[in-house]
Inverse folding.
């Protein structure tokens, strides 16, 4: 493999972007390496001593993969993880380059990678072609509408995944007599009809592809009213309207099809204490625990390691500023935003800062804010401040949700943050919900002012 | 006199992808703030077409391909003919994205046969091929007609976001809604966006259309009232500063 010098260049780029604060250290080393040698990821893949775990889905990738990584590391394993959240192939390769020696040797047990929805088929195909890899674990969290201008519609993603999984299945059938078999473990969300459908297509009568399901069995958590932003309430097998015994959020719930008999698979795991608040984090926790079990980590180890889980950047991350607390919730699509709002409301907030940007990582289209149920903010004594590139769009949305209740528009993010800080007393918390680039901008404002 | 409007919302569970329900919220709230009572009738697959006849205003939005297929059969056979008659009689309607394509003569995908539309609007849509670029981005367009004029200095433009693969071409019975100043519009070729026929509007703008274009929302409401109560009712002015600021932001960007 003549990859040494490429890796050298990649490491150099990585080092330079860190030193020069270019902020692109998470993608460029991998991008350059891939342009020179497209097989570079396969070269890294073959070096992991144990397994590769891929985490995919619209919401929860970063938190779930971080949970898996932290538990494995506390258990004494070395893990390569794209913790920066750069989850295209170039981000995954960059994470490998950063951890490898100058000649490209990776001394690591596990690769835990969150993978972008569109990149998943490519990443899977590279891993499966590598003979030395015995198998891998694929965690499928959920599929929600997200940045339709960039990703396309939920069904388009599901189709790509289905094609990729069908290919795996066909190959396993063909190779069923060969000794060179890979075991694929799919950890799938039973409560998301589309995800459960995909896992069952891939695993049905294919002994080497195993599906494990996670889901909730707690009727007390069923919501009273259906969210508007539901995408998969029609049967993925036959197209009829699905019936729900109850919905936990969005289209996630206990579903069955009255027409063809398809129904939610019985979860292999349905309860685990989540280290973070929020229903969506219960799902992330269940997914992480199922993945860890599947690679042989014992329940007691998982339990111990998860109790002091430190959240990923911008995901319920806490800051202290002038004696006041700020809690930052990345909220980038209707399902995520609804989940954040629900979680924040449970914390009885005094002040809420909402920040909407429309840069490339946020999606240029801000229409999705009309699919978020901001109506839950009505009739509550919460001070709301709206900011970001598209502050006025968000302000109009809030106006139509809660009428003329008091809220402030402040397009200057720095001013918006100092304003919200004045609304709470020492020790009290300001809650901030922000889209991706807005979340990074908020962090910059806060951390630039010396955080404790 | 107490006024009341019934708004038909077609396929809210199938055709509401790009924040489309925002149009319904805007119509409802702008009525409510003026003391006009509203009722929204969700028209789904299971709804009888005759329910539509009680409605004073029609809205139908965009959909994903799978949902579009589920809705299309029902629309062409059952709801479409009734809506066609209502549009002909001057009931105001708003058709956005997939709905805009649905009400035309046909939609021709890049593979396979043309899918017939309801033929309510004299227009057709073609997808130029899987290599063709989707038309995506913010759009600003200058209104062609002066019927939407309001008291705001921004009332000659509409702003929004478009995201469509199909290219729509208007027939001789249609008037374009607006001339594109920035973005693509109906087909990215002739420089026009949307369509006007009788009191109905077709548009590729989501965002949603009515949230940043209160003059269009008010025109739909005023027209619906006029059709129902047979006299010209002046709508009370509202404080639209936020709406126009959002409008102006895209206009000046």
């Amino acid at each position: 493999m003549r990859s040494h010098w490429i890796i050298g260049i990649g490491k150099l780029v990585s080092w330079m972007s860190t030193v020069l604060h270019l902020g692109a250290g998470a993608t460029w080393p991998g991008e350059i390496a891939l342009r020179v040698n497209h097989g570079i990821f396969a070269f890294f893949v073959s070096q992991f001593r144990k397994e590769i775990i891929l985490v995919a889905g619209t919401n929860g990738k970063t938190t779930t993969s971080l949970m898996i990584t932290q538990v494995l590391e506390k258990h004494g394993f070395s893990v390569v993880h794209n913790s920066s959240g750069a989850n295209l192939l170039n981000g995954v390769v960059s994470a490998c380059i950063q951890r490898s020696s100058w000649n490209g040797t990776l001394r690591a047990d596990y690769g835990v990678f969150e993978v972008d929805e569109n990149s998943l088929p490519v990443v899977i195909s590279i891993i499966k072609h590598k003979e030395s890899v015995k198998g891998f674990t694929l965690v499928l969290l959920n599929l929600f509408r997200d940045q339709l201008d960039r990703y396309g519609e939920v069904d388009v993603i599901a189709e790509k995944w289905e094609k990729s999984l069908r290919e795996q299945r066909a190959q396993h059938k063909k190779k069923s007599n060969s000794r060179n078999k890979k075991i694929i473990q799919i950890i799938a969300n039973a409560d998301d009809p589309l995800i459960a459908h995909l896992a069952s297509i891939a695993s049905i009568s294919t002994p080497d592809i195993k599906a494990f399901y996670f889901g909730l069995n707690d009727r007390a958590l069923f919501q009273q009213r259906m969210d508007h932003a539901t995408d998969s309430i029609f049967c993925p097998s036959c197209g009829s309207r699905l019936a729900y015994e109850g919905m936990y959020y969005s289209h996630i719930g206990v579903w069955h099809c009255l027409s063809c008999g398809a129904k939610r698979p019985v979860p292999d795991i349905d309860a685990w204490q989540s280290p973070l608040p929020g229903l969506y984090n219960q799902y992330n926790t269940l997914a992480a625990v199922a993945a860890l079990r599947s690679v042989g980590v014992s329940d007691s180890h998982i339990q111990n390691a998860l109790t002091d889980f430190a959240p990923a950047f911008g995901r319920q991350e806490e800051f202290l500023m002038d004696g006041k607390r700020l809690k930052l919730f990345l909220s980038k699509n209707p399902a995520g935003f609804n989940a954040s709002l629900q979680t924040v409301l449970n914390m009885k907030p005094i002040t809420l800062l909402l920040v909407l940007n429309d840069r490339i990582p946020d999606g240029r289209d801000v229409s999705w804010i009309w699919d978020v149920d901001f109506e839950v903010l009505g009739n509550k004594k919460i001070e709301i401040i709206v900011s970001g590139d598209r502050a006025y769009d968000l302000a109009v949305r809030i106006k139509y949700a809660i009428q003329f209740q008091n809220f402030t528009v402040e397009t200057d993010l720095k001013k918006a943050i100092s304003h919200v800080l004045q609304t709470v007393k020492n020790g009290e918390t300001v809650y901030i919900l922000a889209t991706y680039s807005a979340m990074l901008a908020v962090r910059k404002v806060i951390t630039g002012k010396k955080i404790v | 006199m107490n006024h009341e409007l019934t708004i038909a919302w077609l396929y809210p569970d199938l055709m509401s992808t790009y924040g489309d329900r925002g149009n319904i919220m805007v119509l409802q709230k702008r009525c409510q703030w003026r003391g006009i009572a509203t009722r929204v009738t969700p028209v789904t697959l299971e709804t009888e077409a005759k329910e539509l006849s009680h409605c004073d205003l029609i809205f139908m939005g965009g959909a994903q391909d799978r949902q579009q297929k589920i809705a299309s059969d029902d629309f062409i056979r059952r709801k479409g003919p009734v809506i066609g008659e209502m549009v002909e009689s001057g009931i105001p309607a708003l058709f956005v994205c997939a709905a805009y394509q649905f009400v035309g003569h046909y939609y021709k995908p890049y593979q396979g046969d043309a899918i017939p539309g309801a033929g309510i609007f004299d227009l057709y849509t073609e997808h130029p091929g899987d290599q063709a670029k989707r038309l995506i981005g913010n759009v600003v367009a200058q209104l062609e007609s002066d019927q939407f004029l309001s008291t705001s200095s921004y009332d000659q433009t509409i702003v929004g976001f478009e995201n469509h693969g199909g290219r729509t071409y208007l027939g001789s019975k249609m008037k374009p809604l607006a001339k594109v100043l920035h973005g693509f519009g109906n087909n990215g070729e002739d420089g026009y966006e949307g369509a006007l026929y009788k009191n109905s509007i077709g548009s590729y703008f989501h965002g949603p259309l009515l949230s940043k274009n209160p003059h269009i929302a008010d025109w739909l409401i005023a027209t619906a009232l006029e059709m129902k109560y047979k006299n010209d009712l002046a709508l009370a002015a509202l404080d639209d500063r936020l709406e126009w600021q959002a409008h102006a932001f895209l206009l000046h960007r």
The domain at 4-251 of chain B is CATH 3.40.50.880 (Rossmann fold). Chain B has five helices and 13 strands. The mean pLDDT of chain B is 94.
